[in-house]
Amino acid sequence: MKIAVTGTRGIPSIQGGVETHCEELFPRIAASGAEITLFRRASYVGGSEGMDSFRGVRLVDLPTPRKKAFEAIIHTARAVARARRMNADIIHIHAIGPALLTPVARMLGMKVVVTHHGFDYDREKWGRVAKFMLRLGERLGARHADALIVISDHIRTTIASRYGRTDTDLIFNGVPEANRDPETDCLDSWGVKSGEYVLALGRFVKEKNFHLLIEAFRELAPWGVKLVIAGDADMPDEYSENLKRKARAAGVVLTGFVKGKPLRQLLTHARLFCLPSTHEGLPISLLEAMSYDLDVLVSDIPANRLPQLAKEDFFATGNRSDLVAALRRKLDLPPSRRRYDLSDYDWDVIARKTAGVYRRILGQSIKS
Description:
There is one protein chain. The chain is an alpha/beta fold. It has twelve helices and 14 strands. The chain has helices spanning 17-31, 71-85, 102-107, 128-144, 153-163, 185-190, 210-217, 238-249, 260-269, 284-291, 320-332, 347-361, and strands at 2-6, 35-41, 53-54, 57-62, 90-94, 111-116, 147-150, 169-170, 197-201, 226-230, 253-256, 272-275, 295-299, 314-315. The strands form two sheets. It has an eight-stranded mixed β-sheet, with helices on both faces.
């Protein structure tokens, strides 16, 4: 079974939810015997330039202009052409923008799997034309993909209502088992102490709403905790630069994009995790925080309403006063750890289900 993968910036250690998804998923499918080729956007690979494989996944870097309006569709078009030349059985397209190429891939004789990671046209960074194209990509993926994977029940019901497609495969994002790090050398380098900071993770884009979190934190000085935001912008712009200036003025600790040991320490020692987003698919950062038994506070958008959370874990999206009040309620309580049932988000199970989708559309028997 020969699988080509596109729609991601690349792996490994590249910032983004789709990127984390692919980094966890495809090595597991490769280990089951499938031949996986993942196409990366050359402008994002950084220190891994020239890497031709990762944990059994073949990596192919394709040149792509680093312009947010064009890079995904140009990269996907080039990936579809390369997948056809390599005689791929299936091309697996991630996200609704790249799904614009679904009919083209079908016409070239390949089976197509699309994973719908979220309603990207709701992101504030896109203008009217871009939003139209993203909606078109969603429509073409929903109508023409041989299989459509959705990562949340909210996406599944929306696709069924909007396009009448009821045969979607609900396969959640996953989270690996927590790998706690009792050391604090990374924390020390940032000037923060174990149990004395609130953690936020993500890219510096408007829909993450980190500016709201910074504004709310200005009112919490008496609580004696710091705010740590781990992440950065893919491409610096006016919003991300203003966000950094606002954060520095408010005494917020900015770590930059982190993986590995620094991220493990941040998750191990945080007092509270906060996700104030206005838009998500199924946030892997939230699942990561839950895997480390952290108390959480998140916006009440549908994607964040996981059944493992309680009503006190939510605040009204975009409402600063409600966020401030919720933070105060959380920080007034003694620090505690929580246990969540994350059995639905096991990457090994997710990999088996995804491979089962591949075998089904190729007409192969599905092994248990």
